[in-house]
Design brief:
Blueprint (H helix, E strand, L loop, with lengths): L1 H24 L10 H5 L4 H9 L13 E4 L6 E5 L14 H11 L11 H13 L11 H17 L2 H8 L3 H17 L2 H11 L9 H9 L8 H10 L12 H17 L5 H9 L21 H13 L11 H10 L3 E4 L3 H14 L9 E7 L6 E6 L2 E2 L7 E2 L15 E2 L5 H10 L7 E3 L4 E3 L17 E3 L10 E3 H6 L3 H8 L4 H10 L8 E3 L2 E3 L15 E2 L1 H12 L3 E2 L5 E5 L5 E2 L8 E2 L3 H17 L14 E6 L5 E7 L4 E7 L3 E4 L2 E4 L6 E2 L2 E2 L9 H12 L13 H4 L10 E2 L8 H10 L3 E4 L12 E5 L5 E2 L4 E6 L26
Helix pairs in contact: 1-5, 4-11, 4-12, 6-7, 6-8, 6-9, 11-12, 12-13, 14-15, 16-23, 17-20, 17-22
């Protein structure tokens, strides 16, 4: 009996405090409720003072919103990124049916109270008191629920699990803070603002956060289009999203919907006729699975999507406004409600997919893979990125998460050997050095001492006894050829002999200036780096593993007459409010090549299609085109990279699978295999890669400038038959640079090589003498050894061994 009296006293104390608070604070403060400790001590004036002095600042509203990746048209959604699938909308974009439904079932006196419902609070206090007395139940207004959800949202963004639990705990102290914050919030925010914010933050189950996402998830419509029945269904879900799941627990959801409809009818927000019709209706859903991440990107664009994501994550410079750290930028992408307009041209992308699948279908039994990238010269915009796989973390014959088009740090592979497509950089270096396109090259020489290859500073590579042997794809390729002939026919022996006349570091620097780098770090020339090594004699034959995106961007430099533009996938970004966010787009102000040099390379590469290794695709692309085939040893990797003035596409085809080969692992040749239903013999760059390229470019060039480039200057074209006749004299090249001397001697039909340095008054690094000497009689093809000066004075031809500390290893023959 004594316990019953005490309990009754506590209840009277609670109610007395409630009345007192209502009188003191007026309508806004109606419903104040102090903790159990206050109740135990009686309702006192001090308790009311304590509550009024309580500070409970609501967290700043910063809701997680899904970001959208759009195609270049600014309309087509490629994918969405989100931690919470949400898109906030103003109240005028939410149907009145939805507004009425949520108020009816969750807070019918919403328009009348000041943040706390006094009637509901007393009811809950009594219920709590008559129960265990340890928890506060129910009575939360929409304002209170909004406050609670804000605390949960902010804790989740911080990754603070303890704070998430605290924000949802059913204890008196948490409830008091929520009440205090709700009352204060209603002083600064209108009812409509609170209602809109609540509907945007509420969780509706099945990854749908906010009413817009819920309308799309369950009905494939906008929140503004929700009917009475649909609104009642969604309003019923928020109380227990898993219990009333419309997709997986339809019976529960139907019963709950009808409860909401009944309450709406009782409150007269729907008519008798509306209620009668709605309550008899079945649940009709049109579910739409949300596009979450790159795995759900529209067909074929998963790899581009992941490329964009990685670029944002790593773009400390370009995307600095999204955050100063990688995690901050990813958080902005997943929670910031961004609208990212990409560079993807949907027509070109579709053409790339179609052409790839025509020759190497997705899931082809051969396991052969292909990747294609199209970029725009003079802008660097990535217009298409496709491969014959589906983007998925699970690795099977038809899917992978490895993007064959990009570097390893961007989600790609370690790259692929480029074969003879690298010859274009040797050709560019040849022309930069003052040589011409009709210089005659001895293509019969198939072995050169490694020490005869030059690095920077006229140092040599490899031990003096090592010989670099190389050959051609066809035995008939040889003799004396012009540079134009060697380029059109992709003659390995000619290009190695050209390379031997140039410092390898000059070729490396030319490629580097055009953005060429390895797809992943490699240990060459004594250091681990992504720089193109300058110590490997086979470099002109493309032994380096490079990504298709890098090759497309480099060749775009030729198309743009020497201007290099780093590849970039984003046109612009807007925040959730539609305001533009500044991004730092890489500039195209770098003149990597003199325009005449670029024109000279293009002049030569046009011959690849008209009378060279890719005549099978000549005429398939409208307008003037240039390009280069590439085939590595045993046809493991095959390429075609080609361009017009405004479009450049790189295509790679190969089998990426590693197979055990003796004690090591190797990749299989494409030769003599059935690929895409076609049985092939020997596979070259022109066999599969070039036709894929033509199929893409035929569409890509539509509406663009496909006119011809200006010809290079006449001095670069030179004259045919500039070989030395039998018995001509050795030209005097004393005091010339090594490169210039090579050109003069080669023009005379001689085969220059570099010997040891000698004492001479000629400046160090320049030619001191030759052997045979200037004026000596020589025959076509004779070797002339160049001796650089060491700058120490004196004179005479030396015979120093000139050994460098570089290395040589087997490389593909292109």
């Amino acid at each position: 009996m004594r316990n019953s009296s005490a309990a009754a006293g506590r209840l009277i104390g609670l109610l007395s405090l409630f009345v007192a608070a209502s009188v003191v604070a007026g309508a806004l403060f109606a419903g104040l409720f102090v903790p159990a400790v206050a109740a135990a001590g009686g309702a006192t004036k001090g308790s009311i003072t304590w509550f009024n002095d309580l500070k409970a600042v609501p967290p700043i509203e910063d809701l997680s919103q899904a970001s959208v990746l759009l195609a270049a048209d600014g309309r087509t959604t490629i994918a969405r990124f989100y931690a919470e699938n949400r898109q906030t909308v103003p109240l005028n974009k939410i149907s009145k049916n939805m507004q009425n439904s949520i108020i009816a079932i969750e807070d019918s006196r919403f328009r009348d109270h000041g943040g706390v419902d006094p009637i509901g609070l007393v009811r809950a206090a009594v219920s709590d008191y008559l129960g265990s007395g340890s928890q506060v139940q129910g009575a939360s207004t929409l304002t209170q629920q909004y406050i609670k959800n804000l605390y949960v949202e902010q804790a989740a963004r911080r990754g603070d699990k303890a704070a998430v639990q605290a924000a949802t705990a059913k204890d008196a102290s948490r409830k008091i803070l929520e009440i205090r914050a709700a009352i204060d919030l209603e002083k600064t925010m209108s009812k409509d603002q609170i209602l809109a914010n609540y509907l945007n933050i509420a969780f509706f189950g099945n990854q749908a956060y906010g009413i817009e996402a819920a309308a799309e998830r369950y009905f494939s419509i906008h929140a503004s289009q929700l009917s009475v029945e649909q609104s009642a269904l969604l309003a019923g879900v928020v109380n227990a999203p898993f219990t009333f799941d419309p997709i997986n627990k339809k019976k529960n959801a139907l019963e709950r919907r009808n409860i909401v409809l009944t309450r709406m009818h009782e409150l007269k927000v729907i008519s008798d006729q509306q209620y009668a019709k709605a309550v008899k209706s079945k649940i009709v859903l049109k579910p739409k699975v949300p596009l979450g991440g790159c795995i759900t990107a529209i067909e074929g664009l998963g790899y581009f999507c992941e490329y964009v994501r990685q670029m944002v994550a790593q773009g400390a410079d370009a995307f600095a406004k999204l955050g100063s750290t990688r995690q901050a930028r990813l958080d902005a992408l997943d929670r910031g409600g961004l609208k990212i307009t990409s560079t993807i041209d949907l027509d070109t992308q579709q053409a790339a997919l179609k052409s790839i699948k025509k020759y190497v279908p997705i899931g082809d039994r051969s396991k052969v893979a292909t990747a294609a990238v199209t970029v725009e010269p003079n802008t660097g915009h990535v217009l298409a990125m496709a491969q014959n796989k589906k983007f998925n973390p699970s690795s099977t014959r038809d899917q992978t998460e490895i993007n064959y088009s990009v570097d390893a740090n961007l989600g790609g592979s370690a790259g692929f050997q480029t074969g003879s497509t690298f010859k274009a950089f040797t050709l560019a270096t040849w022309l930069r050095d003052g040589r011409d396109l009709n210089a005659r090259i001895n293509a019969s020489r198939k072995s050169i001492p490694v020490r005869d290859f030059i690095r920077c500073g006229n140092s040599h590579i490899g031990p003096s006894t090592e010989i670099y042997n190389f050959n051609n794809s066809e035995p008939s390729e040889g003799g004396t050829l012009s540079v134009l002939q060697a380029t059109a026919g992709s003659v390995n022996t000619a290009f190695v002999n050209m390379e031997q006349q140039l410092p390898l570091c000059d070729i490396s620097k030319t490629a580097d200036g055009m953005g060429v780098h390895l797809a992943g770090p490699a240990s060459d020339c004594g250091k681990a780096s992504t720089d193109v090594p300058d110590c490997i004699p086979s470099m002109t034959l493309g032994p380096f593993s490079i990504s298709p995106l890098t090759m497309a961007s480099a060749y775009a430099t030729f198309a743009a007459e020497g201007t290099y533009c780093p590849p970039f996938p984003v046109l612009g970004i807007k925040d959730a409010d539609g305001n533009g966010i500044p991004i730092k787009v890489p500039g195209c102000d770098k003149q990597a090549l003199d325009p005449d040099v670029a024109r000279g390379v293009t002049y030569a590469l046009k011959g690849v299609l008209t009378h060279g290794t890719a005549t099978n695709v000549n005429g398939r692309v409208p307008g003037h085109v240039a390009g280069k085939t590439g085939t590595t040893n045993n046809s493991v990797d095959t390429w075609f990279v080609g361009y017009t003035k405004q479009r450049t596409t790189a295509v790679w085809v190969g089998d990426p699978t590693l197979y055990k080969h003796g004690r090591t692992y190797a990749r299989r040749s494409l030769n003599h295999r059935k690929i895409g239903g076609t049985q092939y013999g020997t596979v070259f760059g022109a066999t599969i890669s070039a036709p894929i390229w033509a199929g893409i470019m035929k569409s890509a060039v539509q509406g663009t400038d496909t006119s011809d480039w200006p010809n290079p200057p006449g001095s670069m074209l030179g004259s045919e038959g500039s070989t030395a006749s039998a018995g001509s004299d050795v030209p005097d090249v004393t005091g010339k640079s090594i490169g210039e001397a090579f050109g003069i001697l080669a023009q005379a039909g001689l085969q220059p090589r570099v010997g040891g340095s000698v004492n001479s008054s000629v400046p160090a690094g320049f030619v001191a003498s030759t052997d045979p000497g200037a004026g000596s009689s020589a025959s076509d093809g004779d070797t002339v050894t160049i001796h650089p000066s060491n700058g120490r004075g004196g004179g005479g031809g030396g015979n120093g061994n000139g050994n460098g500390n570089g290395h040589h290893r087997k490389r593909p023959k292109g």
